[in-house]
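An example makes the point: we print one protein in full, the chain in one-letter code, the fold tokenised, without further comment:
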Amino acid sequence: MERAGGPLVRNQVDRRTLLRNAALLGISVPALSALLQACADSPTGSGGGGGGGGEALKIASPDNPVTWPISDDNQPIADGLQPEKGPLLLYNYADYIGPQVVKSFEARYGVDVKVSTFNDTDEAITKIRTGAVPYDIYFPSYDQIARLVTAKLVRPLNHSYIGNLGNVWPTFQSPWYDGEAHYSVPYSVYTTGVGWRTDLVPDDVAGLDNPYDALWNPSYRGKVAVIDDWHTAMAMVALRSGLTDVNSGESADLDKIQQGLTDLSNAVKPKVTVSMYNDLPSGQLGISQMWSGDVVNAQYYLPKGTSVDILRYWFPEDGKGLVDNDLMMILSGGNNPVLAHLFLDHMLDEKNALKNFGYIGYQPPQNAIDTDSLVADGYLPENLATAAVKQEWFDVAYRLLEMPVDVDAEWHRVWQQFKAGA
């Protein structure tokens, strides 16, 4: 399938840098800790049914689903309102939305849509907080919800405008991180695995007893990379070490992860980057930790005359690896809340979601997509069929969760030490 819009040209940024620091509220980590403690004595957040009553602000997880409350001073918009005149302001990572789906929305509603981009989460949240630019829609990771809702930076949704939410996988119609989808709708799903070039890596990586071991192979020194996302990279080290809690606050587990990172650095001196989608096909890398969407995009960066058949991607067949998803959320400071709801509905339309998939390479969780048919339908080449994301994996996979501030700080400490020596 010819990819609409041509190859991506992305900034070298981490699309999924997880917001686990004080950037959201613009304060120091100690002050944030105090704030979260204060939240435990207030009705800011709740688990289960979402009532207040002084319950502690909870960190959502599949075992601890949370339905965030809707406060009296941050209510959904009313039913049946006419859309504003725009322009609609989107705030997203560079090249993470297809121009054609944006243009079709503009044509349908007779408005302009402007896409602004950011280089990292700190920059994005700082601008959102200041309100200097009244962005309407933000594209975060699911684990940012707790703090976005706490700070009332996002607007609760009125589902009467978003009928296409019924098109997505059932798990995302009332997800564990946002029960009843009060504040978010899904945008994309992806796995994290290992990508490689068969002409530079002779090993059958997928056939190894522990495929993660290939990244520690000293034969590939200077040709290895890990994702420049502290939690994603460290979670992979944890899984390779036999740990199953990729959000652990146990000192022994973190020590094991730190040792794994040290061994990795000593063995291969890995590149720490988010440009694997370009560096792997260009031959600067032979093997890399990768997101499924980026290995799909890698085919468009191969040198002229180089067959896509040299690319491979491994993710555990049983789904017991890292799977994640990104969201669309309406910001409370935007000037076009009705139009923003209609845009979310537009992106959840089956045809628009598939067209966007063809551009960004990241799969939407649409019921209409038969994961087993993505190769036949032209979305994936045969040799990258393993980059397809299966719905059932979200029941068994490991998720990167928000962490308590003290645990978050320890993980960051280990990561910064690794990067300093990488």
In short: The two ends are 38 Å apart (CA to CA). The domain at 29-189+324-378 is CATH 3.40.190.10 (D-Maltodextrin-Binding Protein; domain 2). Strands lie at 88-92, 113-117, 137-138, 185-197, 224-227, 271-273, 287-291, 311-314, 322-330.
